[in-house]
Write a structure and sequence with these properties.
Length: about 425
């Protein structure tokens, strides 16, 4: 029994040690390669360098009208940013009228601002390149459900009087074409085709419906893009900053160094003050760090400086749970209980306190994520992931390792367990 527990404990420690080695250095086995965690992690603007800009819409609209305009503007900016080919852009709405755009890897701040801030250009174009009408002649575009076609989503267009006349003349001409390719009118936004419907008949009343195998989301997106060309909003540059890659790399290196020092001090304290339980907690803490980092990578989360702060804080909270458990363990040992009984009782009595502390912090993280902006959201995400994983490692893994260690029956002196 002792040998079996010892083998299991050594195997777990070896797996954690191997995971830490691979996380730091990476590994390649044949054609399979696992990169170091640092290379797999997506870095935010403050670590990778790039450009961020806060834009404010010049509009007096309020309520639902303002929300509709901002959604359209957000969609247009996202298309432009994606066209720039940048990795991990972050585009979020701040408050009622502002949009924050973070572009990691962008080098020219003014070029990026000019690209994302220009007024949307929407055009309806025939296959020969002739422009039929522009976005300012579109009154509205919305999702409709046609009952005669099984309530599938479509996009309804409405033009002003000038646009209706131009559209009628164009549809009369193209619908009579013998080649199906010549019966297409392309809808182009910012020089990119967003839809290319076939015209089957003349449309005289200034109203048209684009049908197809749309999902609700696809139809809503197309309608929003078309409205975005019809309802342009001037954007004012409120705040701009360009962070060089050298500065970002320096911030990352300093953050990693600070994390190393902090973790080393925490592990040292646990070993000195709690002895055997401290050693077990240190092993569990290494597993905790590995799980959090790989969860980040798996979710494709972007690590920022506030995120690093959240990670270090969550490490402290993981240790805090162990401190509560080990203090309970010491009390049980002083009351004369055996090691096995003291472990079970200590974990059971500490669980309520740990749950209360972590749940209240999780609520704070949810509030920060819901109402915060980009950097604050990064901190909140890291904190919430850390809390969830710390509960698992502190309560489940630490208890399992501690029981395995006690079952080996090498160290029986209760003083080695902090009593």
């Amino acid at each position: 029994m002792k040998i079996k527990n010892a083998i299991i404990l050594l195997l777990i420690v070896a797996i954690i040690g191997a995971g830490a080695f691979i996380g730091i250095n990476g590994i390649q086995i044949g054609d399979t390669q696992i990169s170091p965690v640092r290379d797999m992690m997506k870095l935010g603007l403050d670590l990778k360098g790039g450009v961020f800009v806060v834009l404010e819409a010049e509009t007096d609209a309020t309520g639902d009208e303002l929300n509709r305009i901002m959604v359209q503007t957000l969609g247009v900016i996202e298309r432009r940013v994606n066209a720039m080919g940048l990795t991990e852009p972050n585009i979020v709405r701040e408050g009622d009228k502002r949009i924050r755009v973070e572009l990691p890897g962008a080098k020219n701040a003014q070029e990026a601002i000019d690209m994302i801030g220009k007024t949307a250009q929407l055009q309806f174009v025939k296959t020969n390149g002739d422009v039929i009408l522009s976005g300012d002649q579109v009154k509205n575009a919305e999702v409709v459900f046609e009952s005669n076609k099984g309530n599938v989503p479509s996009v309804s267009l409405e033009f002003n009087s000038e646009g209706a006349r131009a559209f009628q003349a164009a549809t009369k001409e193209v619908s009579a074409a013998t080649d199906i390719n010549d019966r297409i009118i392309a809808i182009i936004l910012d020089e990119q085709i967003i839809s290319a419907p076939e015209v089957r008949e003349e449309i005289p009343n200034g109203r048209a419906v684009i049908t197809g195998n749309f999902t609700i989301d696809e139809a809503s997106n197309l309608a929003a893009l078309i409205r975005g060309g019809a309802l342009p909003v001037n954007l004012t540059e409120v705040q701009t900053s360009a962070i060089g890659p050298t500065l970002g790399l320096d911030s990352l290196n300093k953050s990693i160094d600070a994390a190393k020092i902090g973790i080393a001090l925490v592990l040292l304290f646990m070993l000195i003050y709690y002895r055997v339980p401290g050693l077990i907690a240190s092993i569990a803490l290494l597993l905790y760090i590995l799980i959090v980092l790989y969860v980040f990578i798996g979710f494709g989360a972007t690590l920022t400086l506030p995120g690093v702060a959240g990670l270090i804080l969550s490490i402290g909270m993981a240790v805090d749970a162990n401190v509560i458990i080990f203090e309970r363990l010491k009390e049980e040992l002083r009351n004369g209980k055996s090691l096995r009984a003291a472990v079970d009782s200590g974990f059971a009595r500490a669980l309520t306190t740990i749950l209360d502390a972590n749940i209240t912090t999780m609520i704070a993280g949810i509030v920060l994520f819901q109402f915060g902006s980009g950097p604050i959201k990064g901190f909140a995400v890291t904190l919430m992931i850390g809390i969830g994983v710390s509960m698992f490692t502190a309560v489940v893994i630490t208890k399992m390792l501690l029981k395995l260690f006690i079952n080996i029956n090498i160290f029986k002196n209760t003083k080695l367990y902090g009593a």
